[in-house]
Design brief:
By secondary structure, the protein is an alpha+beta fold. Helices cover 23% and strands 30% of the residues. The chain has 2 domains: 106 residues, no CATH class; 103 residues, no CATH class.
């Protein structure tokens, strides 16, 4: 059975990160419905990061018992939460690290890939845009500067001819756009099966030519 367990891996990337629970214990939802954390089934302490794990000896009855902490009015509520945990875990390969963000769960890149991308962004020279890149998170109402570029990851993406979903990475550097597709084989998101890049100059030229 694929479920979620507590992990401290990737902790510290966000100011709100915490992992007071014991690493490796079953992760369940808190009766207080914490927006950015799950809790350990035994310790009942919070963690903002969990990982997908295969627990072959765990049964549905065991999982429901672990979810139910005695504060729920009905056992059926515990079953619903247990089924939700199974649905979340089923979407990702074993070893995938997730962070809780309200009702959503987001994939966190493995540390080596996270550090590599951070270094690439930090070392990227000013180029075609001369640092004038801006982005909006609210449909253009407000804008934020991205002087070192912008990395956009499309998580849980459907990848043709792959058994598992993967990650599409769009790296807007100061000189152009780098596109990567990552999938999981032996470890989480450990294979880059496709990459391409285009300079903004070439992109603009191609758009103008196509519109003529």
């Amino acid at each position: 059975m694929k479920v979620l367990v507590i992990t401290a891996e990737t902790q510290g990337r966000k100011p709100e990160d915490c992992c007071a629970a014991e690493e490796g214990e079953l992760a369940v939802f808190c009766h207080m419905n914490l927006p950015e954390a799950m809790v350990g089934a035994k310790s009942r302490k919070a963690s903002t990061t969990v990982t997908v794990a295969e627990l072959p000896n765990l049964t549905m009855g065991n999982l429901i018992s672990e979810v139910w902490d005695g504060r729920m009015s009905r056992l059926s509520n515990a079953r619903q939460l247990a089924e939700q945990i199974l649905r979340i875990a089923s979407k990702h390969p074993v070893g995938t690290i997730l962070e809780k963000d309200g009702a959503d769960f987001r994939v966190r890149l493995p540390e080596w890939q996270y550090q590599a991308q951070a270094q690439a962004l930090a070392e990227a020279p000013k180029g075609y845009l001369e640092g004038a890149m801006r982005f909006s998170l609210d449909g253009g109402v407000t804008w934020l500067d991205a002087p070192h570029g912008l990395l956009v990851n499309i998580e849980d993406a459907l990848i043709p001819r792959e058994d598992e979903r993967g990650l599409v990475s769009l790296n807007f550097t100061s000189e152009g756009l780098i596109k990567d597709i990552w999938v999981s084989r032996e470890e989480t998101l450990d294979h880059n099966i496709a990459t391409s890049s285009v300079l903004y100059e070439d992109l603009v030229s191609a758009m103008i030519e196509a519109d003529r």
